Amino acid sequence: MSRFFLIAGPCAIENREMVLLTAATLKEVCDKLSIRLIFKSSFDKANRTSSSSKRGVGIDEGLAILKEVKQAYGLPILTDVHETWQCERVAEVADVLQIPAFLSRQTDLIEAAARTGKIVNVKKGQFMAPWDMRGVVDKVENVVGSHERLWLTERGSSFGYGNLVVDMTSLIEMHKMGCPVVFDATHAVQKPSSQTGITAGNREMVPHLMRAALAVGIDGLFLEVHPDPDNAISDAANQVALDNIENILKQAIIIDDAAKASIAFQSSTFNLRPSTFNPKPSSCLSDIALLLTDVDGVLTDGGMYYANSGDELKRFNTRDGMGLQLLQRQGVKVGLLTSESVSLLERRAAKLQLDYAVIGKRNGGKLEAAKDICKQLGITLLQTAYIGDDVNCRELLEKVGYAACPADAADEVKQISGIHILTKKGGEGCVRELCEQIIKAKQK
Question: Which spans in 189-267 are helix H?
Fold first, then answer.
């Protein structure tokens, strides 16, 4: 069973300096404790009790700051979306799009988020039963055909006026839907509208609820963290102090390790399973400086053709070749990486005038070859896009900033966290499709 992943950061983006300080500290702590971190902060707190409440810096400045966090610290990003038009824009930076609890039944918003291809985290509304989240799962499946990129988050249920309670059996009920389940320990201690125009809460209860949820079994933990929570513009009474986060996470690890080592946790009675999600940052397409592609199953249809002479033949798609050339005109370097060692590949690379052609690389050679090319160009793997279709591409796909695969790629490849599944199959224009996406992003 794998350790929980952590979604953490300040509730709202108040300013660049505070966000970068929080991100740097969280990364240092999580690296030390071997916890997978997704950085969270909101550019707009649209769901406020009072119209006079501060809402944050807005989408333009907010996304710029989150992009800086991603590039500076190599962290995947989660942020809220409130309207359908925001989804495509936010997906250019964020790796996880979050649907706030009050919007958890908004069909159009959920579907728009799912269509981006990013992971979608839906917070269960305070007014919803855990089994009501089946409707969320169905909405995502209706749009993208699966719920592989869907997380469900528990954040407490309304209990009379101005109070929330957490039913820990809700975690088990939502796990039965086959999605990773996250527990939001900071919003669960809210006391909505219990002060004049302000949501109050009790952060002292955060560690207690956190430990209870970990003992039941969760995939992810959600904590809002702030350097000076009492003076935060949003959720001041709920956020955890940044200085305390290491001690709180040490407690979390002890409970999580014990629970996941126990016979009871692993019993099918609870219908729990290890998290298969390991979010990594995906780069903005506009930042891509290098596109690398596999050959068999990507530039070709993966078929094996032989002439009477015994020579191997391959079927390429001319539109892919034109796409690579159009991308070069945008200043993006292009190349192919393949473990195959066939002379016709050299001829194809020469005809297309590719910048790089690494042929005959096996046993992890693709990753090292990509690193060498990046070093020559003075860029990082986060500025690299790679399209591959099978297990021998996985190592590189998991490291690059933008990973993509054909529609008919191996299932193991499609399950890579953050990968973008194209609509075209190998040899049928999937490379051209990705090239056009990059060009479109750079021309905005």
Answer: 206-216, 245-261, 263-266
